[in-house]
Specification:
The chain is of the alpha/beta class. Helices cover about 30% and strands about 25% of the residues. The longest helix has 18 residues, at about 5-20. The protein is globular, with a radius of gyration of 15 Å.
């Protein structure tokens, strides 16, 4: 099991570094439901950001929507009224294929064109299918085909590597 405090500390340090390097001005942080919101809540509090935390549900933006259909627990997104020209920190729990981030960017751009978007993820794992990559990462890991990352939370927040057979 990965030590969550260490991974969160590393992610926070990377976000702080990118805020300075890219000169983000009054950034808005947006977490992707569900695990990304849990991580974003931690980062939002640690960074003491002035803007309220935005919440994003990408269910209707997924490229496999026609295959998976509507899930009964779809929740509305809650984004700031003004995205146009803003600096955005987009937060997710696990970066895997890149498809979730593609969907999230599509939804964000439907609200307006941000000045820049910084992608922060708790875990980056192997398996990328789309040419996207995170700017800030808490931990990079490689998993065998029969494994996946499971985030539990929100309190306490935990990271577990599971066998897909055990998850069924």
């Amino acid at each position: 099991m990965l030590e969550i405090k260490t991974v969160l500390d590393r992610l926070e340090a990377e976000i702080r570094k990118v805020i300075l390097e890219r000169q983000l001005s009054n950034p808005v942080m947006i977490g992707i439901r569900t695990g990304g919101v849990w991580v974003a809540e931690q980062m939002h509090q640690r960074l003491q950001l002035a803007e309220p935390l935005g919440l994003l549900d990408i269910s209707f933006y997924r490229d496999d929507f026609s295959q998976v259909g509507v899930h009964p627990n779809v929740k509305p997104s809650a984004l700031p009224a003004q995205i146009e020209g803003r600096d955005v920190i987009l937060v997710d729990d696990v970066f895997y294929t890149g498809r979730t981030i593609r969907a999230a960017l599509n939804e964000i751009f439907d609200y307006g064109r941000p000045n820049q978007v910084v992608l922060a993820v708790l875990i980056e794992r192997d398996g990328r299918q789309i040419p996207l990559c995170p700017d800030c990462v808490g931990e990079r890991i490689s998993l065998s085909p029969g494994q996946r990352i499971k985030l539990t939370g929100p309190e306490p927040l935990g990271i577990h590597v599971q066998s897909i057979d055990a998850a069924a």
